[in-house]
Amino acid sequence: MDTSIFQRGKTETKSAHLVRSWKNKIFFSVVLLFALITISIVFLIIGTLVAKGYRQINWSFFTQVAPDTFDAMMANASGRLIPGGILNGITGSIFLVAIASILAIPIGVIIGIFLYENPHKRYANLIRDIADVLQGVPSIVIGLIVYLWVVVSVTKGYSALAGSVALAIMMLPLIIRSTEESMKMVPESLKEAAVALGTPYYKVILRVLIPSSFSGLITGILLAVSRVLGETAPLLLTTLGNSSVNWNLSKPISAVPLLIWQFYNDPNMVNMIWSSSLFLMAFVLILNILSKWIAAKKSIQ
Amino acid sequence: MKKIGLFLALALVIASCHSGKKNSVALSGAGSTFVMPFYTTAFQKYTPLTGVKISYGGVGSGAGIKSLKDRVVDFGASDAFMTDAQMAAMPAPVVEFPTCSGAVVMAFNLPGITTMKLTPEVLADIYLGKITNWNDPALAKINPGVKFPNLPITVVHRSDGSGTTNIFTNYLTKVSPEWKSKYGFGTTVNWPVGVGGKGNPGVAGTISQTTGAFGYVESTYAFAEKIPFASIKNQAGIFITPSFASTSAAGKGQMPQDTRIMITDSPDSAAYPIAGFTWVILYKEQHYNNRTLAQAQALLKLWDWMLDPDAQAVAQQIDYVPLPASVVALDKSILRTVTYDGKPILQ
């Protein structure tokens, strides 16, 4: 009868074994439970957005600007879909993020390379720490600062430029750190080989370092973009919103998160909140999956 | 990649310069979230008529005044008129005028009950925390035939600074000496009881999701979300349901020249007592920050149009209350005091 216990381990009694296996089971189920909670939050969010928002998603959702309250009210009263879409928000978000990327990517990548090349210099550590601090600055504070710097002083009014600057400031630390990290992944031997062949150092950076860490760079940039795409607070203080499509840097512009806020404040637009949120969520999700896919491709090489 | 980026940058700069010349007159404003549906709807009607593009941001009444103070918008919009102290803090003299009015309704969530009568005393007692249960005899007395449940009253108020709160607490101050001495009125007050909700949507949402909840929201929200609301006994002693006509009656009183008036607790027998105007604020001298005469003219013409029947009809369509003719006339005379280099802009 006791043989099975002796097979498992001579020093272990039956009760100690039971305790151990139960502990194992308990901890396993706790871990499983928390994992399930995390996963189910994501699925609940997506599920709720799809269930509440899918009806409004149609061709006009992507091709027309935000409806006015009267049209929405009439549509609600007769049980029709709210006409119009979020074209002004979509174009605004793309424009803002594009300008922010043009501002933030070159600076961020250059600083990232500097940090990688001079890992232990005093200034490098200082810059790294400051970048970390910048990452921790609340977005509303960035909005306030940009309001002072750009809205009041430069464009003398709410503008797309101000919004882009705010988003660029938020992207900068993310790009700096991801550039540095992906450069670290490049094998040292690759660099040494290039230097040994007599390549000038700037060419080593441009032709060896950047190309071989390219997928890492893109991943970092995509993550930074998806991070700022949903920002509302800094835009509320810098771009104001616009009910038509705008491609002018010095004029107010709309964005998808701003439209969601606007719809939230209008009782007739409730259905538009959900479809716009679904769109934003899907857009960010696609960017995230894309960056994961690129990162995975890199690790295979 | 780099070349593409550079090309994109160039293309964008060219595009922005180009479009900048085409529509030289564009106006912007910021402020009240309450009036935003009216303004954006009316502006979308105005743009095809004139080509003037207007962007409006619902950032809150206080933030709207701040934006105007920093001169980053052409106009500010506020649900509470500016106090003397606020006026003194502005860098230059401003003018303000009402554009429409709205009612604040007392919304509730009680299963099976769709109408309710309230006296000012009972309303104040609920917000003072003296009446805490729906089965209170005071409520039964003014509502014969309504069977109130034994349920605690969940009082809901705004958590953020708000013109709606200003109107509601102004009313409480007029009808309850105790409220006046203890809490007063303003865009935020120190609430004795209740839970807070962010914005009108927050309060409306809390009420519709909480059985036994009671709170004040702009009428538009109660109408749109079909939340039941109470009729209130006015100064003349008549129970009045908030409606287009009764809110309109509240605005009919004598308007002071500076338009700074609260229309709560109106003596008019047909008036709903918890109502208020919403204001637009402009600089009296429009030549600042290198503004062109064209820009100033566009701004003044816009607001002149917003007072005309076409635009005021838009207000009515989406449950705001148009201005009485006397107030429109006063507003138009105020608009004609706005100048560019000292000369009136509108004739």
TrEMBL record, chain A:
Keywords (alphabetical) are: Cell membrane, Membrane, Phosphate transport, Transmembrane, Transmembrane helix, Transport
Among its keywords, does the record have Metal-binding? no
**Cellular component GO terms, alphabetical:** plasma membrane
List the Pfam families hit by this protein, alphabetically. Answer: BPD_transp_1
What is one Gene Ontology biological process annotated in the Swiss-Prot or TrEMBL record?
Answer: phosphate ion transmembrane transport
Q: Which residues form the ABC transmembrane type-1 domain?
A: 90-291
Q: Could you cite one Gene Ontology molecular function of this protein?
A: phosphate transmembrane transporter activity
Q: Which domain of life is it from?
A: Bacteria
To which protein family does this belong? Belongs to the binding-protein-dependent transport system permease family. CysTW subfamily.
Name the record gives this protein: Phosphate transport system permease protein PstA
Q: Which organism encodes this protein?
A: Microbacter margulisiae
UniProtKB/TrEMBL annotation, chain B:
- Signal peptide range in chain numbering: 1-19
Q: Name one GO biological process term.
A: phosphate ion transmembrane transport
Q: Which GO terms describe its molecular function?
A: phosphate ion binding
Q: Which UniProt keywords apply?
A: Phosphate transport, Signal, Transport
Determine the domain of life of the protein's source.
Bacteria
Q: Does the keyword Transmembrane apply?
A: no
PBP domain location: 25-307
Q: GO CC annotations?
A: ATP-binding cassette (ABC) transporter complex
Record family assignment:
Belongs to the PstS family.
The UniProt subunit note reads as follows: The complex is composed of two ATP-binding proteins (PstB), two transmembrane proteins (PstC and PstA) and a solute-binding protein (PstS).
Function of this protein?
Answer: Part of the ABC transporter complex PstSACB involved in phosphate import.
Name of the molecule in the record:
Phosphate-binding protein
